[in-house]
What we know:
single chain; mainly alpha; PH adaptation potassium efflux protein PhaG
Amino acid sequence: xxxxxxxxxxxxxxxxxLSGLFVVISAFGFLRLxxxxxxxxxxxxxxxxxxxxxxLAGILYFSMIESRPVLHPWLIIIMLSITVPVTTLLLARVxxxxxxxxxxxxxxxxxxxxxxP
Length: 117
């Protein structure tokens, strides 16, 4: 088994612990925020930061083990960067549509008025 330098092990461990901290902070914020729309943004950011930390830890660790640059973990963060905003937008639109359909007073009006055919 390859013995890694101490600085690599420390950097990987720090990135993984930092990732865990981001997720715990995100979960705490998710519990504290009262509204669905308020709950969407901070956890998404914290999970994204956590994913970046895990990806960088994986790149560093496997590059040192292989003794060459290993860049395929970048695919994970690229896919998350593409899919998470789309999913978040769809969830927000569905929640807004449901709030308008329920007749909630605090729902913002549509940008274009609804026209009957």
